[in-house]
């Protein structure tokens, strides 16, 4: 991949980055409330987003720059196994349709802002609330850092090296997020998603034509996998269970993250969420098309330093400079939108479930908003420092753990929507088993999110997150059944 500066591509890239920066600051006046000095307004957009805004916002923070970079990179490396993201994003929307309107109603009726608020309101346990909130913050930090990995690939293709471009981009992001809160990424998401759709449709329509058609794309990918002795166009028989459990576990975890829940809580009604669950699979089509770019990288005979370079290299080598700059801008903006929502979600958790719970229970509405704003800045700086001072592989390993960790909050957050049978001590113990047990299994497997399970003479590989969740639920059920109600009522 060329890493020299292309003036045309860079100029187009800068134009669109300036455009979204202006939009970020203008967002403070978009649908302007009486005051932004309230966490409902700054952190949730006044809970007023309708169907279209929610569709762009949730799609914008669910399909990130790292998704655009990482999914094709995984397909480029391992082939069919990388397509687990497709069934995962199909399974997730029925879950959203059934569960999230109930969660939204609970939050709306009681003024809850975070998952921690919902858990404390349901069970009255500060310990369980803190566990859920801390898990959310810890799982989100590497997720934000990985948006920087996506941006790094783009800056590299543009010929911009070092940490300075990343620092500038995140300083600007921090400033307009501080000013406008959730309204900034919600407004920018319109531009980001439209740009991504244009880029992907152009890629899947034009790149195969330049590479001899899809038959040649698949044949080239198959030849490359056979030559290196790993990867395949089709799943092997020993991959079926791993593929299915990874897709299911990822789907259950996806809307437990603070940034996706923030988009849900910002909606104006449960019906808006249901409509979005019906409409959001359009992004699954987009993701499937994106994944095919991994195969196209083999057909284009790209020389890559890293699989993460496959998408930028395709646009750089097969398109004109101006469209390459447009594509790079789309990917970079695709990092800024989710990074903003992630930092806001983490800031809301810290403010409501740590600062207000333990430091200043009497904090005013304006004080809450101020703490959340400052925390969002700290979160962005922390993510930037992770990328600058720690190896990228460290962030990748943490992100693998992040999905397993956040999945362990599902029982505490979701079960209470349907039954009052569960009590806090049992759920907290289940969380401890799932959180630390899952972490150990990943560490023991050499930082791989899959674990070998043997049943008699049969062995198969299962997603570690689902194993940890199963242990979490079993422990919660058993303890809740055997512990006296009087003991648990004091939790």
Describe the structure.
By secondary structure, this protein is an all-alpha fold. The chain has one domain (7-390): Sodium/glucose cotransporter, CATH 1.20.1730.10. The protein is built from 22 helices and two strands. The chain has helices spanning 7-26, 39-44, 51-62, 65-78, 85-110, 115-123, 126-158, 164-180, 183-210, 214-228, 240-254, 258-265, 270-279, 281-299, 310-318, 321-359, 365-389, 392-407, 410-414, 424-444, 464-482, 485-489, and strands at residues 450-455, 458-463. The protein has a two-stranded antiparallel sheet with strand order 1-2. A hairpin with a 2-residue loop joins β1 (450-455) and β2 (458-463). α9 (183-210) packs antiparallel against α16. The chain starts with 6 loop residues before the first helix and ends with a helix. The relative contact order is 0.18.
Based on the model shown, name its key terms.
491 residues, 2% strand, Sodium/glucose cotransporter, two-stranded antiparallel ribbon, 2 strands, mainly alpha
> Order of strands across the widest beta sheet?
1-2
Into how many domains do the coordinates divide?
A: 1
State the name of the first-level CATH class. Mainly Alpha
Question: What proportion of the residues form beta strands (DSSP E)?
Answer: under 5%
Biggest β-sheet strands, sense, barrel: 2 strands, antiparallel
Shape: globular
**CATH architecture classification:** Up-down Bundle
**Helix content, binned percent:** over 70%
> Given the structure, what is the number of helices?
22
Superfamily (CATH H level) name: Sodium/glucose cotransporter
Let me know the average pLDDT. Answer: 87
């Amino acid at each position: 991949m060329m890493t020299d500066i292309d003036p045309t591509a860079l100029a187009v890239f800068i134009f669109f980055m300036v455009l979204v920066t202006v939009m970020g600051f203008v967002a403070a006046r978009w649908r302007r409330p009486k005051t932004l000095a309230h966490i409902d307004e700054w952190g949730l957009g006044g809970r007023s987003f309708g169907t279209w805004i929610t569709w762009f916002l949730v799609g914008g923070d669910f399909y990130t720059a790292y998704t655009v970079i990482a999914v094709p990179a995984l397909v480029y490396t391992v082939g069919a196994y990388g397509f687990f993201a497709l069934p995962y994003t199909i399974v997730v929307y029925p879950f959203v349709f059934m569960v999230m309107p109930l969660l939204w109603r609970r939050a709306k009726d009681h003024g809850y802002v975070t998952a921690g608020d919902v858990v404390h309101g349901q069970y009255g346990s500060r310990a369980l609330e803190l566990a859920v909130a801390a898990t959310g913050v810890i799982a989100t930090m590497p997720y934000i850092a990985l948006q920087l990995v996506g941006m790094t690939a783009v800056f590299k293709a543009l010929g911009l090296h070092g940490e300075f471009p990343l620092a500038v981009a995140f300083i600007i992001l921090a400033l307009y997020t501080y000013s406008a809160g959730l309204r900034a990424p919600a407004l920018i998401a319109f531009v980001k998603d439209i740009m991504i759709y244009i880029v992907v449709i152009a890629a899947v329509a034009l790149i195969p034509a330049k590479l001899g058609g899809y038959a040649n794309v698949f044949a080239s990918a198959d030849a490359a996998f056979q030559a290196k002795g790993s990867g395949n166009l089709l799943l092997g028989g020993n991959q079926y269970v791993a593929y299915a459990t990874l897709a299911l576990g990822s789907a259950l975890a996806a809307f437990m993250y603070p940034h996706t829940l923030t988009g849900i809580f910002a909606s104006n009604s449960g019906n808006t969420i249901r409509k979005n669950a019906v409409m959001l699979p359009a992004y699954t089509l987009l993701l499937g098309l994106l994944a095919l770019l991994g195969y196209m990288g083999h057909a284009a005979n790209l020389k890559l330093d890293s699989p993460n370079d496959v998408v930028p290299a395709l646009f750089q080598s097969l398109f004109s400079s101006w469209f390459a700059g447009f594509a790079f801008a789309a990917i970079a903006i695709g990092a800024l939108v989710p990074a903003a929502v992630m930092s806001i979600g983490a800031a809301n958790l810290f403010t409501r479930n740590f600062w207000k719970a333990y430091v200043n229970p009497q904090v005013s509405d304006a004080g809450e908003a101020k703490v959340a704003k400052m925390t969002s800045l700290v979160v962005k700086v922390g993510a930037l420092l992770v990328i600058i001072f720690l190896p990228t592989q460290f962030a990748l390993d943490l992100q693998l753990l992040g999905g397993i960790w956040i999945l362990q909050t599902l029982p505490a957050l979701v079960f209470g929507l349907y039954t009052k049978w569960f009590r806090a001590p049992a759920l907290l113990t289940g969380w401890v088993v799932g959180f630390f047990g899952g972490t150990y299994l990943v560490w023991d497997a050499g930082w791989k999110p899959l674990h070998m399970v043997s049943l008699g003479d049969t062995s198969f590989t299962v997603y570690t997150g689902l194993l940890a969740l199963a242990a979490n639920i079993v422990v919660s059920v058993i303890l809740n059944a055997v512990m006296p109600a009087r003991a648990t009522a004091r939790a």
